Amino acid sequence: MEPLRIGVLAVQGNFREHVQMLRGLGVDAIEVRKGDELAGLDGLVIPGGESTTFMRLMRLYGIDEAVRAFDRPVFGTCAGMIVLDRNHLGLVDLAVRRNAFGRQVASFESDLDVAGLAAPVRAVFIRAPWVEEVGPNVEVLAEIDGRPVLVRDGRFLVAAFHPELTDDTRLHQLFVESVREAQLVRA
Question: Distance (Å, rounded) from C-alpha 9 to C-alpha 17?
Fold first, then answer.
């Protein structure tokens, strides 16, 4: 079987860490810097970084409209969650509050109980958002103090934290499995 081809938006942020993690899972991880580079990909990761910068660069390089048109699974982390929310690209039915956990000095790590996983996931929160409101079809997979921080909305998986900054590959594996399932449905 051919390896999956998953793009990682590489205009800003933690894209290298996602690429490394995906390659460790046997995925052909592709750095994406232009909208036309989404063609032929099986999935896409939008990494953490600075959401305002992301949106500006995505508009500048035509990636925003390409991501809107991309019909494969997408995994957004931290700023990636913000970029996908109702108030930005409008692809995930949730409202996000930027920097909700505080500034850089308030960054922290926490063990999260994730629906469907036997053991907690170590989550790294850096100037992290939280979900203020979810739509009726959004599945909350993990919370902190009653605030959703990991959710799934159809083909979208979004996290308020940085799973790429730990050695735990389970969330990337969960995403890769959703990409494989989507590929089987298309076949």
Answer: 12
Is residue 65 within a helix (H) or strand (E), and if so which, with residue range?
helix 63-69
Active-site residue 162, yes or no?
yes
Catalytic residue, from 17, 18, 88, 164: name it: 164
Express each pLDDT in 2-61 by its tens digit. Answer: 889 999 999 888 899 999 999 999 999 999 999 999 999 999 999 988 778 878 888 888
Distance in angstroms (rounded) separating the CA atoms of residues 29 and 16: 10
* Active site (annotated) includes residue 143: no
The C-alpha atoms of residue 46 and residue 121 are separated, in whole angstroms, by 20
CA distance 138 to 132: 13
Residue 30 structure tokens: 């592709």
Query: Which of 78, 88, 132, 143 is labelled catalytic?
Result: 78
- Written as six digits, the tokens of 24 are 């460790």
Of the residues 17, 18, 88, 162, only one is catalytic, namely 162
Report the predicted TM-score, pTM, of the whole model to 2 decimal places. 0.93
